[in-house]
Specification:
It is a single chain. The protein is α+β, with helices and mostly antiparallel strands and 362 residues long. The protein is built from twelve helices and 13 strands. Strands 5-6-9-8-7 form a five-stranded mixed beta sheet, with helices on both faces. Strands 1, 2, 3 and 4 form a four-stranded antiparallel beta sheet that branches. β12 and β13 form a beta hairpin. It is elongated and about 95 Å long. InterPro entries: PGBD (IPR029526).
């Protein structure tokens, strides 16, 4: 993950191909649904050597450090930057299974000679594969050919089961069914959590202009904590049987958090005391000074958390009639709420004042 930042910082990196190529690089441990479990900031080539992983490279030490907080038994999926035989053996000792793509230059040459070449797999067609299993049967190397060959190194999956996936064929301009080993299926279904997190972080990010990398770092992790909270909120709502169209989207979820923070700030003890001490004459004077001609401007409906704060909302009698702001009410009234500053009916037949604050819908 890249934390966007273009100012002066000794840890700034440039990674072409990323949505934000310039910034602070971070190694992320995330679930397939995008929930971030742990973060480690890249601080140079010697990152990880001071944490007891000096014999491993940067990618391997990053995986070992991120998995220190995990309970043994998890399955770790990583891309070719991290995967190696040494890493999988070390994770095996710690009680973790691992699967991921791997580079050719990280494999011994005798293994590559025992595997079928790309030309041999290409002759067999798309979906062909070759598997090598180590003598102790702890690690399997799978080479799968689609449009080009891809190699997978795994300690849990290989080609024990074969299914079919749908792929597009440019020659025939149609979709075809291609054979797919189990390791490819599991890798594709469980990878992509960090990319999903990056996509969610792009929704209304709090990126104010700053020259200090610490400010950008803090604002980025505030957004990250909100994304994690929204993922947990969405999962809880689905477990409770709430329909999907009633679950808040990420943008609305962020807005509700900001409204709650603003309401708590505006309704502090000093603000409550100041609001209760204002007389009706001062309130009417404020309304009269808004406009000299025509209708006064329409006042915004307060947020739900503010409307349900019962200690502040008290009815007051005004001097002129205004249209009631409760939904489905078309009557006029002189009574208004002191906190909301909105006209609401309060009669023996209609109690729009209570409906507006209790139900919280308008």
């Amino acid at each position: 993950m890249i934390i966007p930042f273009t100012g002066a910082c000794p840890m700034r990196q440039y990674c072409p191909g990323k949505p934000n190529p310039t910034g602070l690089k971070a190694f992320i441990l995330a679930n397939p649904n995008g929930l971030v479990c742990d973060v480690r900031i890249y601080q140079g080539k010697k990152t990880g050597t001071k944490t007891g992983h000096g014999e491993f490279n940067v990618g391997e030490s990053a995986v070992l450090t991120l998995t220190e907080t995990l309970v043994p038994g998890h399955i770790i999926y990583c891309d070719r930057f991290f995967t190696s035989i040494k890493l999988i053996d070390e994770l095996q000792k710690r009680g973790f299974k691992c699967a991921g793509t791997i580079m050719k230059n990280r494999l011994p040459k005798y293994l590559l000679h025992n595997l079928q070449t790309d030309k041999q797999l290409a002759k067999q067609g798309r979906g062909s594969y070759d598997v090598l299993v180590r003598e102790d049967e702890q690690i399997a190397l799978t080479k799968w050919y689609d449009n080009k060959s891809v190699m997978f190194l795994s300690s849990i999956h290989a080609a024990e089961t074969i299914d079919e996936c749908r792929r597009y064929d440019r020659k025939t301009r149609s979709y075809v069914h291609v054979k797919r080993p189990e390791v490819v299926k599991q890798y594709n279904s469980n990878m992509g959590g960090v990319d999903l997190t990056d996509r969610l972080l792009a929704v209304c990010p709090s990126r104010m202009r700053t020259k200090k990398w610490t400010v950008r770092f803090i604002s980025h992790f505030i957004d990250l904590s909100i994304v994690n909270a929204w993922i947990n909120y969405k999962a809880d709502q689905k477990m409770q049987g709430v329909r999907s169209h009633k679950i808040l989207q990420l943008r609305a979820f962020k807005q509700s958090i900001s409204e709650k923070i603003l309401d708590d700030y505006l309704l502090s003890e000093n603000e409550i005391e100041r609001a209760t001490e204002e007389s009706l004459d001062v309130m009417e004077e404020k309304v009269s000074k808004t406009t000299k001609r025509g209708r006064p401007p329409v006042k915004a409906i307060p947020s739900t958390s503010l409307r349900q704060r019962g200690s502040l909302h008290l009815p007051a009698m005004g001097t002129s009639q205004h249209r009631c702001r409760q939904k489905s009410c078309v009557m006029k009234t002189t009574i208004y709420c002191q906190a909301c500053d909105l006209p609401l009916c309060l009669t023996a037949k209609r109690n729009c004042f209570a409906d507006f604050h209790l139900v919280g819908s308008n």
